Amino acid sequence: MSAGKVVAGGAVGVALGTLLGFFVLAPNIDGGPDRVVGDSRDELAAATSERDTASAENDAADGIIAAAAPDLVREALKDRPVLVVSTADADAVTVEATRTVLDAAGAVNAGDLRLTEAFTDQDKGDELKTIAANSLPAKAKLSEDRRDPGYHAGELLGQALGEGRDGGAAASDSDRGLALGALEKGGFLTYDPDSVRPAAAVVVVTGDDDGGDGDRGSYATRMVADMATALDATTGGVVLSGGRDAADAGGALGLVRGDKAATAAVSTVDNGDRAAGRVTVVRALVEQLAGKAGSYGTAPNAAAATVK
Q1: Which of 7, 109, 212, 298 has its CA 20 to 30 A from that of 134?
Q2: Which residues are within 8 A (CB) of 303 and not within 5 positions of it... i.e. 6 or more apart?
Q3: Is 302 exposed, middle or buried (0-12, 13-18, 19+ CB in 10 A)?
């Protein structure tokens, strides 16, 4: 055996002996493992208790606001048709609760479109763009400057489903059916044909996807942000509602908020999964229909908690 191996073996033995003495022979000395583990356990228990208390308080406050919501939004959107578009990762309970608060505000149900996972599948991008180009209503156009699949899909939806300047339909019933039918046949969305009518404004409900690290987002979050921006450009206004994580730099809300032009046009609400956020969605829609926009919620990049 070489001298190097003997030295190395001795070093390992010393290290193991030290660890043995620390964890086995002297567990209760100051700074010993039992003390460290005990302190960590106490800190974890305290943090867990604090989290549970905060969650319970939030739930209680949410319940109070939910009960008061009908009075808080009553007739705010009276007789205004509102379309709800939800992404594949949007929580179904949140989507339903959003429609409920819109009903309480007096909004006319202009339909509910549920996007599928295919809509945000990068491999389906070219197919989606082809449908958008081939299913446009009469006199409708797609942007030549913005050629992103999400943007073109949003333009198609907006021009097929939005109200015209006179408050009537921007597209004929047959053109609207053609556009939605093509998207449904392509597997990009599901909807009830009997419930869809021209919309004055749109709520896009998404989930908590933060888009990964960085501020460029994922393909999916960019698709949602682009679609919402295009819908806003082709309808009376859009509110993009999501969870707190979606407001991170790479999330759909974060991407809108990180774009000066987009954030001046599209309103965003980052606590749409809470009753307070859904009241804000209604108020933000009213603001949108008046030609204004804002960034609301609890995330650091929100401009205010709610519409003043």
Answers
A1: 109
A2: 294, 295, 296
A3: buried
Q: Note the pTM of the prediction, 2 decimals.
A: 0.81
Structure token digits, residue 185: 């046949």
Report DSSP letters for 97-133, one per residue.
Answer: HHHHHHHHTT-EEEEEEEE-GGGG-GGGHHHHHHHHH
Dihedral angle sign, alpha carbons of residues 285, 288, 294, 299: positive
pLDDT class of 7 with cuts at 50, 70, 90: very low
Which element (helix H / strand E) includes 203?
Answer: strand 201-205
Encode pLDDT of 101-113 as tens digits. Answer: 999 999 999 999 9
> 156-200 pLDDT, tens per residue?
999 999 997 656 678 999 999 999 999 999 999 999 999 999 999
The alpha helices in the chain, defined as continuous H runs, are 3-20, 33-73, 92-104, 125-134, 149-161, 173-185, 219-234, 252-257, 260-263, 275-289
For residue 101, give both structure tokens. 């608060």
Report the distance separating Cα 133 and Cα 276, nearest Å.
39
Residue with tokens 């295009």: 230
End-to-end C-alpha distance for the chain, whole angstroms: 80
User: What whole-number distance in Å separates Cα of residue 95 and Cα of residue 90?
Assistant: 7
Strands 295-296 and 267-269: parallel
